[in-house]
Structures are given as structure tokens and as C-alpha cells.
Inverse folding.
């Protein structure tokens, strides 16, 4: 067990900014659940762990484990109820392997880290392996996004694109040819659309910006008997993801 | 247009505490969307509105409209990006009418205002009219819960109970006899359980505490192909609520 040196302390602080993450290719993953998930999913990415003494024996998988006092910890970590542990890890990089999922969920300019992270977690729970997103979305390796996702980003393939057109082009190259734009008010009903999950791309926008355009795309909507304004983006994504799970179980 | 007097200012500040809400029976509803929803759903509950000059003409439905400066507004309101409007309203009270929904969604000790609010919003969107909850849950009229729900609390009937036993007793009196405890790992599959929404009670717990016990209740689970730890409570609730919407549309 070693004491956390000053340069590592400064590094951690810098990882709470987009600039710091971009410069180093690293990110900070906070809390017991998230660190456990990270260490299970991608131990090779972990550079070092910082924790309070009592927790450290659990984290022998980490290559280096530093110990700090409670006071120091709370100065360092963003979590309000800091659970006394954080890992510094490299953001995963992967060669452009072909996606194999039945469909690709896409987030178009979803800027809220809570929503983005919750959707990652739900994508992972639904058994999918990829999520694509456009510029204008939050950084998936933002500390808040990692917490909301309970570190699901380390076991998913996330691909960022400058805009929907570029994304659509790449999707077509991989054989994903049906494009669906989710819309709170208009379009075909997701529950009755037969080809919704057949080599398709399902694009979810933010509440602030809605969803962009893709040539030839179909609009798809969630029926809403309560005629309320709209669902939260993460709730809409959940309905799409678990309708897939339902159909998949039925046919499988 | 009048200037906001000191006692009203102090009142608003007190409504950010549970004690202040309890003492007055009032709550504070912030932001353009939430205030619009409140004024549409329950204008009779609104006591007064506070806004920046530009916004006030929109809010003629409010009995009294005070105007304040931007600086004063940001000192008063909790929202980080305050949209320059808030309403002070009475928490709705209602006589014990019989519930008429096909099933009753219940939140058992869900303490997170974001999750609780998001679930209220989704309950409303699904066309239901009631949500019941147990003590240990967050105050549904907390400002954060109202924002997360986009003020859906003003068009739902919310009933609080000291514990699940008391809640179950009341539900039985109203003819709701089947009890389901949602469980991340075990139980019947929600997608194939035929009687899931037939005069039933579906109980959702928090991630921290799980769900309590009810004699004779059945466990029900969401299949999770990704074998991830669990879904966020609000995502699990959404799957239950929109599986109901799907079946209802199919049969209706």
C-alpha cells in the first residue's frame, strides 16, 4: 500500500474535465459498484486505484493501489456520498470490428450525463454490445456518465460520429439498412412494427433537441395513453430496448 | 405586476425543506414546463407565481404574479439553469375515492427524487391515475421530485402508507388482490405472466433497499439477456408500465 503522490492527485483532478480526459485518454471511475464492474469487465485498462484502507484488500486486481485519508478522498472525488474508492482507467479503444447485434441503438446529441449513462446501462442489460452516438452528446467517459451507467461503458463498444449522415453511411456499410427516428408524437407504433429490430438503426434524440434527420428514415413512436408531453429520453430508450428483449425471448 | 414581498421570499425558501412543506401544505414548482403543466392540471392549487418580466404575460392563469430580477431569481430557485419562473402551490388533497386503474403501481422506500419523479412522469404517460408509496420514500412534493416528474404529481392521485402491510390491506379493500414484488433476479417473467395487470398491485423497491415483503405475493422479474447486475429502479418501472400499455393496446 502506497501513499498517493502529488502528480497522480493532479492527474485525477484533471480527469473531471473533458480537456484532461482528451489529453491523457484516461477517465475516472468512482464508487464500489462501478470499480467492481470495471475491474471485472476490463482489468487491463485500470492504471491505478485510490481507496481508503478498509476497502483496498478487495481490489487486488488493480495493478497499483494507493491509500488516502477520508478527508483527502472527499476533496478528490465528485460523488456526494463518496464510497471511498476510485479507479483511473484508459478509455477503451477497439479496432473497427463488424457489429453483430440485431439492431444498433443510437443517441443523437444526448447531452445529459444521467440519461446517457442510464441508457448505456440499459443497453448492456438488454444484451446488446454496441451503442453509437453523435457529436453534441456528452462524453461517455465523463465521471457522471460512468456513475449513471454503473461502468457499462467498459463492456460495450461505443462509437462516436460527427453527425447522423456519417453514422448512417457506416451503418449501411455494415449491412444495417433500416433507419428509425424515435418521435414522441408521430410515426409507426413500436409495438406493431414487424421489422423494427431487423438489421436496423434506432435513433433517440434528447428532449432539448429532438432527433435529427436521416434520408429514407421512418418515424417510430411509443403509444402514450396518458397524452402526456413526452417521456424522458432514458425511459423512451428503455421501452425500445425491452420491447426487443420481449420479442427476442418470444422467438428464441 | 408586483414586487415580491419579503414574507413570500422567506416562504419560498422554506419550501425547499420537508419541514417547511409539512408546516404549510405548500410546495414549489420550478421551470417553464413544470409550471405550465401545473397551471393546466390544477390551476386552483396555485397560490402565486414568481417570474422574470419577459415570462409573466404567459402566466395570466396564476392568481398573483410577482416579478423579480435575474439575480434575485437565481438566489431563490434550486434549478441550476433556472428558467426564470416558479409557482408556489398547495399539495393536492383528495377524498378517498375508489381507484379505477387496472393495476396499482407502488414504490416501496424509493428515496431518490430523480427516480421517484421519473416514475411519476412515466405512470402519467402510461395513462394511469394512481401511484401509491410507503414511508421511507422521498417526499413526492420535494422540488427535485416535481422537476423530474415535470409536475405529473398534480394530475395523479398519490397515496402514502406507513408500510406495505397497511398498503396491502387498503388495496384489498378496493378489490386489488394479486400482489407482485419486482425482483431483479428471480420470479415469473413479466412478459409471460397472464394476470399481471388484472386488479393487481406491482411493487417496486429501490436499488439500495430492494423490495419489502407482502404475504402471498408473487415475485416477478424482467428477463435480462445481458446478465448485468440490475436495472435502475426507474427503468424497471418503465418496463412494467409500458408492457401494460402494449397489452392494453392489443386487447383494446
Amino acid at each position: 500500500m502506497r501513499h498517493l503522490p502529488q502528480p497522480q492527485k493532479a492527474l485525477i483532478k484533471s480527469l473531471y474535465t473533458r480537456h484532461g480526459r482528451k489529453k491523457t485518454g484516461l477517465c475516472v471511475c468512482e464508487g464500489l459498484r462501478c470499480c467492481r464492474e470495471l475491474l471485472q469487465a476490463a482489468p487491463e485498462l485500470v492504471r491505478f486505484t485510490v481507496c481508503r484502507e478498509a476497502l483496498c484488500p478487495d481490489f487486488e486486481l488493480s495493478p497499483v493501489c494507493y491509500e488516502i485519508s477520508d478527508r483527502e478522498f472527499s476533496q478528490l472525488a465528485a460523488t456526494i456520498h463518496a464510497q471511498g474508492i476510485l479507479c483511473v482507467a484508459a478509455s477503451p479503444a477497439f479496432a473497427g470490428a463488424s457489429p453483430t447485434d440485431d439492431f444498433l441503438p443510437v443517441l443523437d446529441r444526448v447531452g445529459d450525463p444521467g440519461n446517457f449513462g442510464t441508457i448505456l446501462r440499459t443497453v448492456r442489460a438488454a444484451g446488446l454490445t454496441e451503442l453509437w452516438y453523435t457529436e453534441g452528446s456528452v462524453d461517455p467517459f465523463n465521471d457522471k456518465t460512468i456513475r449513471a451507467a454503473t461502468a457499462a461503458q467498459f463492456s460495450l463498444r461505443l462509437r462516436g460520429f460527427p453527425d447522423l449522415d456519417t453514422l448512417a453511411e457506416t451503418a449501411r456499410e455494415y449491412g444495417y439498412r433500416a433507419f428509425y427516428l424515435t418521435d414522441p408524437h408521430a410515426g409507426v407504433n413500436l409495438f406493431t412494427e414487424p421489422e423494427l429490430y431487423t438489421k436496423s438503426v434506432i435513433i433517440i434524440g434528447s428532449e432539448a433537441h429532438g432527433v435529427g434527420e436521416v434520408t429514407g428514415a421512418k418515424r417510430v413512436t411509443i403509444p402514450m395513453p396518458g397524452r402526456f408531453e413526452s417521456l424522458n429520453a432514458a425511459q423512451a430508450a428503455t421501452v425500445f430496448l425491452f420491447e426487443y428483449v420481449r420479442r427476442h425471448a418470444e422467438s428464441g
Remarks:
- Chain B touches chain A through 37 residues (CB under 8 Å).
- Residues 233-251 of chain B form the longest helix (19 residues).
- The mean pLDDT of chain B is 90.
